[in-house]
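Service request form, structural biology core

Requester: graduate student, group of Dr. S.
Request type: structure prediction, single chain
Budget code: on file
Notes: please return the result as structure tokens.

Sequence provided:
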Amino acid sequence: MRWLALCRRPDAAAGDSDALAWLALSFTPRVARLEEAVVAEVSASLRLFGGARALRQKLQAAATQAGLALGAAAWAPTALAALALARCPQHPQQGRLAERLDALPLAALSAAQAHHAMLARLGCQRLGELRRLPRPALARRFGPGLLAALDQAYGDLPEAHAWLTLPERFDARLELPWRVEHAPVLLHFAEQLLRQLCAFLAARHAGVRALRLAWQHDAMRARDVAGGGELTVATADTTRDLRRLSRLLAEHLARTTLAAPAGELRLSADSVLPLEEGSAGLLPGPADPQERTTTNALLERLCVRLGAGRVREGRLHEDHRLDHMQRWHPWP
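Core staff response, request fulfilled:
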């Protein structure tokens, strides 16, 4: 087996762990949570993506597109070993598994870190020193959990994982750390939910045409104020571009007034559609997909700024009179 352990950066939002797991599901169906990391068994996917290095690069590119910042990562034949190596990126990542694990400090394995004080008094500072202690005495002193974790990390005992699956629809909530009184400030927190959405869409190879952002008003609001509010963001075509969705949401929030301070956000997407990855032409031109997407993104923001029906497009109309062969309709 070939396991890849992915850790989020320490300064990343807590919800990024879900997004990272969903993103990994777009590369392999064997993804699980292991303590603070996401582990993926990718042995069946290596050939498809061109090897370990190419798969890592594609995963990094997908994370960047989804607005996620990857932390430490490591490869190993077992999931616990990959997690231990990811926790100690300064140690060698090449060589035999036993030699690499023997050099790691006790903190690399949570089961050993829990007994660090006692093990230090016994003269153990590294996993290799711990492994050389008498097993019956270790089991009596620290219980069977420590030996089981050691054996699983070194590949002497099989591991069991609860595989993650994608939800049928995207619906995420976020409790705000403080009461937000101005709608534009909500964008900072909504971007955490947008990153989860983009990772969810990447795993489904899909995009959205519309999403809904709702907020719950604080319990201390006035009696005549509703419990919350919401707005709908619609796009001209199917997309999962984080930057495009974030800019469009910012335009909507800039024109929204909160009736009371908000304490919770909820982002949902009902219109999830398959996203066909278009191939760009050799030479840029009017039919270039990238140019069309850029134009649509600009027109979407103009529609929000100018109001409904202010942006129009001309469409051909069957009529024998030249001055009636084109009619203007609201875009899109």
